[in-house]
Each structure stands twice: as structure tokens, then as C-alpha cells.
Amino acid sequence: MKDKRNLHQKVQELCDCFATTDPLMEMAKVPHEADAEEAALKWVALAVLHGVTAGAEKIRISRRSDGTVDVRAKYREAPLRSPGSEIGSKIIEALKHVIGVEGDEGKSPLALGIRDSSLELKVKYEKDGAEEHVTLKFPES
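Predicted structure:
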């Protein structure tokens, strides 16, 4: 990442920055961003905000062996718009870095402050053969 600040802190700042926007509308713009690493962090922040406002149970980002990335949110099992292969790969790498995963699996809580509230997500990384998955699990409301 170009900005060597703590990635967790950067996601936190982006959550605060985009807290009053429409996360889905902003997510649609992410694949067109010039800086894929910055776009990946922005997408994570927007996914968290979307999950909170839409009452998501979890959001799962998957990278297939051919490099394609898809995203699924569980509330009514509706797919979210994919950020594209390049940014999707950066999202997975950034989240692995934030939770400190170095092997084929790991999980960790991720605490985020959003405006005057706080939120603790459970982030899980799994690698199954050539496929990778990162799941953001939201607390029950």
C-alpha cells in the first residue's frame, strides 16, 4: 500500500468519511478508481456501512482460481456488485493484513467506530485450494 499508515485506521477513517452516503451507490464507483489499493480500503468501509444499514448478517468476498471475485451478502442472500478482480484481490489482501493472517485460514474481531457508535465485526479468512474467501460477520441486532 502506498500509504503506510495502519490499514485498520484507514478503514476507520473511510467509514467516518462515507457514513452519510449511500454505500451501494459509492460501491458502484469503486471499480473505476485509479488507485486499486485505496479503492480496496474504500470498498471495505462501504461494505461495513452497507452491512450496518441493510441489516446484513455477513458479507463474503470470494476470489476464484481464475482470478474472478464475487461478493455475497446474507440477509436475503442477495449478491452485491463485484469490485472487479484487481480491487477484489486488494480487498482480500488488505483484510488478511488487518487481521494478521499469514496461513490458509484465520479469524479475528475487527472493532470499528462509526460516528458516535462502535461495531465489532468478526472477520474470517479461508483458503480452499486455489479459492480464497473473506467473510465479514456482523453482530446480531
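Summary: The chain has a mean pLDDT of 89.
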